[in-house]
C-alpha cells in the first residue's frame, strides 16, 4: 500500500469517528463519510465494501492499540520491574488522553458486535492468561488464573474509561498500581 492509500484510509477512518461523535452509526451514510473525508464514493469503495467493514477496521485498530499499550505494562508487572511498572501506569493515562476524543466516541458506541470495551477485554484477558501460563506462574492460594485475569483486566479497563472521562489523576494511578501489585504480589508465586 502506498502513502496515498494509507492517508486516504486514515482520512476515511477519521471521518467515521468524527461522524460518530455527531450522530448514530445507523444514520451515517457512505455519502456522509465520503463528504467528510473529502473523497468520492468510489474511492470509499476502493478501500471498504461498506460502512460496517470500515467500523470493524477502526475497532480493530484501536483494540490493537489498547492491547499493545497495556501488554507492555503487564509484562513489567509480571517481571517484578516495579520502577517500569509504576512509570507505565502514568504513561497509559497520557496515551489515552492523547486520543481522548476518539476513544471516548468508540467506547460510547452502542452497536452489537462493535463494542471496543468487549473486544479489548477479550484480548487482554487472553494475554493475562497466556503470560501467567507461559511463565509457569502458579496462584496461591489456589485461585483460577482466569479469575486473576478477569479482575486485572477489569481494573485496567475501568481505569482507562475513568481517565478518559475525568482526566489524569495521581490518586487513581497510585490506586491502580497498588491494586495490581497487591494481586500479583500476594497471589502469584513463581
From TrEMBL:
Signal peptide positions (record): none
DNA-binding region: 29-48
InterPro entries listed in its UniProt record: Homeodomain-like_sf, HTH-type_Tx_Regulator, HTH_TetR
One protein family per Pfam: TetR_N
Residues in HTH tetR-type domain copies: 6-66
Superkingdom of this protein's organism: Bacteria
A GO MF label: DNA binding
Keywords: DNA-binding
Name this protein carries in UniProt: HTH tetR-type domain-containing protein
Classification lineage: Bacteria, Bacillati, Bacillota, Bacilli, Lactobacillales
Amino acid at each position: 500500500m502506498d502513502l496515498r492509500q494509507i492517508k486516504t484510509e486514515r482520512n476515511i477512518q477519521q471521518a467515521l469517528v468524527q461522524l460518530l461523535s455527531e450522530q448514530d452509526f445507523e444514520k451515517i451514510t457512505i455519502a456522509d463519510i465520503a463528504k467528510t473525508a473529502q473523497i468520492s464514493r468510489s474511492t470509499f469503495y476502493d478501500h471498504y465494501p461498506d460502512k460496517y467493514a470500515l467500523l470493524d477496521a477502526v475497532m480493530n485498530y484501536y483494540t490493537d492499540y489498547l492491547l499493545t499499550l497495556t501488554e507492555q505494562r503487564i509484562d513489567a508487572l509480571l517481571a517484578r520491574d516495579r520502577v517500569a511498572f509504576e512509570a507505565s501506569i502514568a504513561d497509559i493515562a497520557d496515551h489515552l488522553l492523547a486520543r481522548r476524543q476518539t476513544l471516548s466516541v468508540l467506547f460510547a458506541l452502542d452497536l452489537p458486535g462493535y463494542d471496543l470495551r468487549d473486544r479489548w477485554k477479550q484480548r487482554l484477558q487472553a494475554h493475562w492468561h497466556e503470560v501467567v501460563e507461559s511463565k509457569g506462574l502458579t496462584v496461591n492460594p489456589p485461585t483460577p488464573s482466569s479469575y486473576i485475569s478477569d479482575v486485572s483486566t477489569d481494573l485496567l479497563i475501568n481505569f482507562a474509561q475513568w481517565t478518559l472521562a475525568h482526566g489524569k489523576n495521581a490518586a487513581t494511578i497510585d490506586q491502580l498500581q497498588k491494586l495490581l501489585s497487591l494481586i500479583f504480589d500476594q497471589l502469584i508465586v513463581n
